[in-house]
Design a protein that fits this description.
2 copies of one chain form a homodimer.
Chain A lengths: L17 H24 L2 H7 L4 H7 L3 H20 L6 H14 L1 H13 L11 H18 L9 H12 L1 H4 L1 H4 L2 H4 L5 H15 L5
Helix pairs in contact in A: 1-2, 1-4, 1-6, 4-6, 5-6, 5-8, 5-12, 7-8, 8-12
Chain lengths: ~210, ~210
């Protein structure tokens, strides 16, 4: 499926066509809807209304809710990957960028979390899925860093990736504990949470250099 | 709300009453329903059918879906806490027990995860909520262990609790990466995942011998 931010532009001006701009409004509206209500809870009529179009147009652009979610999730994962760029020689820095990204965009974390809960049956590996290809690429990057001596070789690269992701998203995940930090933390500032996350990754997988 | 496993028993025999056993069947059915579909997606008619009762009886025992979810979530948190027992002098051991618990009961982890996504508006701290009281108690246990010199004092206890919870649930959370371990891990066995989780917590917060 082509990314509508680059496809179908009027060549002369680079302005979006009417069709493209409707499609993009649908995607924006759907992002909000899925982030708030998940996939099963999302309603196409609310998406259409927010996008100032009809449910028929939504179905004309996307086969249905699931296809629309899949399109958005894939694009969001690419956006996160681009904004955070895993550097296998500086995993603490990467964890900090992930922390910042999901602090600034909690709705992106919700989008991913709904999919994890709702798409259990599609969890079987499919190497052609771009998000799985991205994971495989990251594991390979970590493996090569271990061979090059810039990452401690004792850990399985799969565990390294999982632990860094997990630690970086500690506060995006544990919303109930996050809400209690104002009362309970020595230093309630978000910068203190970020420093602890980065410190934990640094102790496990120190940056080389 | 009294826990129906101990309340309303016929004193002479200790056998559950008919009312209690209906109520318990509703709770069991609702656990399955919430774990699969979340709160918004759960249907009271399906819960009633699975519990071999009527929707009217479900509403007679519980005010509604949200109250039923709140009752179950509270009880499940108590069950997890009881099964895993946080020992502030042995956090790696605690992480291993959490890992085991959620490996054996993925449906409990799903129950908690739905609540985190769906109950965003109730995330503001309420010290009378038993689950928040349990968190406060754990933070206090960690603080005392730091004062006693059995836990490294440099970390904020809030960060310690969040990081241990988070690392222990790495594989329950990242289902998409978990599904890829068979192909991608050096050692695809669940024991290898468990060992990495326990090792990570040991390196950050070593057990005091």
């Amino acid at each position: 499926m082509p990314d509508s931010t680059s496809a179908n532009r009027t060549p002369a001006t680079g302005e979006p066509t009417a069709a493209e701009s409707t499609r993009e409004r649908i995607v924006t509206a759907a992002k909000t809807e899925f982030s708030q209500h998940g996939i099963a809870g999302a309603r196409v009529d609310r998406i259409a209304k927010r996008a100032r179009t009809s449910t028929e147009r939504v179905y004309a652009y996307f086969r249905g809710k699931e296809a629309l979610y899949a399109f958005i999730a894939r694009r969001e994962l690419a956006v996160v990957a681009d904004a955070t760029r895993m550097d296998p020689t500086d995993l603490p820095g990467y964890a900090g960028r992930l922390f910042d990204y999901f602090s600034d965009h909690p709705e992106h974390f919700r989008l991913i979390s709904w999919g994890r809960l709702e798409l259990v049956n599609s969890a079987s590996p499919d190497p052609d899925d771009p998000s799985q290809a991205a994971i495989t690429h990251k594991i390979e990057q970590l493996r090569r860093a271990q061979e090059a001596g810039t990452l401690t070789p004792s850990w399985d690269p799969v565990d390294v990736l999982a632990l860094v992701n997990q630690i970086a998203t500690t506060w995006a995940t544990q919303t109930e504990l996050c809400a209690m930090t104002a009362e309970q933390a020595r230093d309630p500032a978000a910068t203190a949470r970020r420093a602890a996350v980065v410190d934990a990754v640094q102790r496990l997988f120190p940056a080389s250099a």
